[in-house]
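Quick one:
INPUT:
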C-alpha cells in the first residue's frame, strides 16, 4: 500500500465536512492535525481521529508531522493561511475561491514557489470524473473542436444558513465567489483554450439576503469558442431535475420532500446568532463525521446541466456517464461508479505532494478562475465586457 500523506486541516466547517468522507475512505490520506476556533470541533476531531488539535493555525503549520495542509477556512483567511503553510514548508490544498483579489492570489503563488512546495486549489467540481472524462473525450479529437459550452445550475444556495460575511460581497459573500468558481473551472477545463473576456449580469433580488444570488455570464475564448454560464441560488427551480434527481454530491434526492426545505428551515432562525448556530450544526463538530453522510447508491458529483457543443457531437456529462449526441446517432459513454467520493482530489494532491507532479488545479489555475469571477462582478457593475490578462 502507498505511504499515506499526513494531512493537517485548517477549518473544520462545511467545506471540510463535505471532503471528510473522501479523507476517511482513501488510504492515501491520514489526518494527523486540525485547527478550528470552535472547541467542540477540535475535541471531536481529536477523539475521532486520534489526532493533534491546535487553537492556533501557525502551530499546526509548524508541526513536523504534517506534510500537507488542507485550508478550508473562510475565504478572507486563505491568503494568511497559505503563506503560513508555505513558510513552514508544507504543500497546500486551499478551498475555492482561492482568494478575494488577484494580488492575493499572486502573493500565494509567490510564497509557495519560494518555499518550493505545491499549491492546489479545490475542491471545485472540475475535479469530478464526468468532467475529466468529457475533457479526455474532447482531447481525443474524435468529436472535433469545442465551439460552445452551456452551463446551467439552479439551487437553494442563498437560503442555506450563512454567517454575515457570506452575505456581504465585499467580504467574499454571494454566489459569484462561492459558486461561479465551480462553473468557471468546469468550462475552462472543457474549453481547453485561454479565456479572453467576460460579459455578465448579476441578480440581487432579496433585500434580506443582500448579495448576488444569481448571475449570467458569457466567456469568450481565444480560439473563437464561447461559454454561457447561468446560476441561480434563489431556491425555486432545481436543475437536479435534469440529472435524474441526483444531488450535487452524488446522493439520491426526493424531489417532493426536499422542495422548499431551505427557505422553511431558515425561518426557524430568529436572529444572526440562530443562523450561525444552524450553519455550525451542518459543519463538523457536535455530530462529527455524521454531519454529512450519504446513504444508498452513490453517483459522481456534478454541478448542474452542462452541454459541450463540438464540431461533430454534443457532449453532456451526467452523474454516471457522458451522453454523446453524434452526427448520426447518440449513445451513453458509461463511467464506473465511485468507490470513494471525490477521490480525484486525492489523486491530484497525493501526486503533487508525494511525487512532485505538477497539479492541473495549480495556483495559476486558481488565479485564472478568480479573475473571471471578479470579471463577472466588474462587468455587471460597469455594463461592459471585461478583458482578461491572467489566463492559462
Amino acid at each position: 500500500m502507498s505511504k499515506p500523506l499526513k494531512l493537517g486541516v485548517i477549518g473544520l466547517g462545511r467545506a471540510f465536512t463535505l471532503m471528510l468522507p473522501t479523507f476517511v475512505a482513501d488510504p492515501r490520506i491520514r489526518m494527523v492535525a486540525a485547527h478550528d476556533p470552535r472547541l467542540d470541533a477540535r475535541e471531536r476531531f481529536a477523539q475521532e481521529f486520534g489526532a493533534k488539535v491546535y487553537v492556533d493555525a501557525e502551530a499546526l503549520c509548524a508541526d513536523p508531522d504534517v506534510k500537507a495542509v488542507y485550508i478550508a477556512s473562510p475565504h478572507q483567511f486563505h491568503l494568511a493561511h497559505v503563506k503560513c503553510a508555505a513558510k513552514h514548508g508544507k504543500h497546500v490544498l486551499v478551498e475555492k475561491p482561492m482568494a478575494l483579489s488577484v494580488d492575493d492570489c499572486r502573493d500565494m503563488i509567490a510564497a509557495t514557489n519560494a518555499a518550493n512546495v505545491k499549491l492546489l486549489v479545490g475542491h471545485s467540481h472540475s475535479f469530478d470524473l464526468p468532467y475529466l472524462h468529457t475533457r479526455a473525450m474532447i482531447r481525443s479529437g474524435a468529436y472535433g473542436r469545442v465551439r460552445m459550452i452551456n452551463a446551467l445550475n439552479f439551487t437553494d444556495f442563498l437560503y442555506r444558513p450563512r454567517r454575515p460575511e457570506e452575505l456581504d460581497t465585499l467580504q467574499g459573500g454571494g454566489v459569484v465567489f462561492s459558486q461561479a468558481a465551480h462553473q468557471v473551472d468546469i468550462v475552462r477545463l472543457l474549453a481547453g483554450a485561454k479565456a479572453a473576456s467576460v460579459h455578465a449580469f448579476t441578480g440581487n433580488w432579496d433585500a434580506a439576503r443582500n448579495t448576488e444570488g444569481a448571475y449570467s455570464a458569457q466567456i469568450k475564448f481565444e480560439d473563437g469558442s464561447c461559454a454561457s454560464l447561468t446560476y441561480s441560488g434563489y431556491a425555486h427551480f432545481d436543475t437536479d431535475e435534469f440529472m435524474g434527481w441526483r444531488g450535487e454530491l452524488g446522493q439520491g434526492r426526493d424531489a417532493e420532500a426536499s422542495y422548499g426545505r431551505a427557505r422553511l428551515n431558515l425561518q426557524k432562525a430568529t436572529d444572526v446568532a440562530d443562523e450561525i448556530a444552524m450553519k455550525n450544526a451542518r459543519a463538523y463538530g457536535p455530530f462529527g463525521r455524521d454531519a454529512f453522510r450519504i446513504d444508498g447508491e452513490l453517483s459522481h458529483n456534478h454541478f448542474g446541466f452542462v452541454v459541450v457543443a463540438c464540431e461533430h457531437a454534443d457532449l453532456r456529462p451526467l452523474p454516471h456517464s457522458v451522453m454523446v449526441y453524434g452526427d448520426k446517432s447518440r449513445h451513453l459513454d458509461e463511467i464506473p461508479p465511485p468507490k470513494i467520493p471525490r477521490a480525484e482530489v486525492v489523486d491530484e494532491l497525493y501526486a503533487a505532494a508525494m511525487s512532485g507532479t505538477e497539479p492541473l488545479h495549480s495556483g495559476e489555475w486558481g488565479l485564472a478562475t478568480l479573475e473571471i469571477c471578479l470579471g463577472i462582478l466588474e462587468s455587471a457593475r460597469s455594463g461592459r465586457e471585461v478583458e482578461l490578462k491572467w489566463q492559462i
